[in-house]
Specification:
Helices cover about 25% and strands about 25% of the residues. With about 350 residues, it is α/β, with parallel strands linked by helices. The strands form 4 sheets. Strands 3, 4, 5, 8, 9, 16 and 17 form a 7-stranded mixed beta sheet that branches. Strand 13, helix 8 and strand 14 form a beta-alpha-beta unit. Helix 4 crosses helix 5.
Amino acid sequence: MIKAIGYAAQTSTAPLAPMNFERRTPRADDVAIEVLFCGVCHSDIHQARNEWGFASYPLMPGHEIVGKVTSVGADVNRYKVGDMVGVGCLVDSCRHCEACESNLEQYCVEGPTQTYASKDRIDGTLTMGGYSSSIVVSERFVLSIPATLDLASAAPILCAGITTYSPLKHFGVKKGDKVGVLGMGGLGHMGIKFAKAMGAEVTLFTRSEAKAEEARRQGADHVIVSTDAKQMKAAAGRFNFLLDTIPVQHDLNPYLQTLTFDGVHILVGLIEHMEPPVHAFNLVAKRRVIAGSMIGGLVETQEVLDFCAEHSITCDIEMLDIRNINEAFERVVKGDVKYRFVIDMATLKA
């Protein structure tokens, strides 16, 4: 066993606090990793506070992990000691269903094993995430970090990055397409960068005129203030794709009207029921589609890391001392971060 330390919640109402625990002795296909940086995702907060209703405790969050290989199992051939690697939202899956065989492990028919708060498929122990000194993961679920990427800002690519890249790639966004991005938080600002790098004309939809300058700095060509009825009316029938990163209930109907025929509204933020209801006419009259997308498989996650290296795309981050994690959670809830906290795990040693 490998002795480790991390920050975990013991109950849904307890703050995160230091916890000593043990990682498993590496299996034949395992890679042992010293965690150097770990991003803070809003889903970490939802899970720690059991806001989705299926958390298990103790719960140690973190699924945007970058680190250095410290040892490998006997059957590992892709990685060696000293390699810089990443671990995202998944650490295992059934590996034999149609989804897994199609490199879509996130849609594993039996359900993928999450990086934290899931049962290990072999020994039944609870997975612990990247708010920790180390992690041990099967080789298939480890990713190579390109040498040209800054390690800290690469961490959020493993969740915020793949979550926005995957649907843009899947639905075929290409040069000349008009893409609207709804919301500009951790997901939205990456969506702007990816759509722009794919050659699209990119527009940010925001409730705040104050975000216009920042949106253009991120690469947006245009900004539409969604609370301005005149601007929304002028945008009718204009867009091929909408990448919707808004994580709370919102009215999809005005946005659907901005899509051209065969336009696709892609949900990546909302994971609860739609309220108010979608008016079917907004779909039927123009053969529009509402679609959803969840992170990406391992092949595609490696692809987005390489894409970021090729196009010099990084996530905008604020570095964090892990001792301030609970305050950071409150700031994330308030939207007071541009655009992702990343924990410097060297602070864990303090």
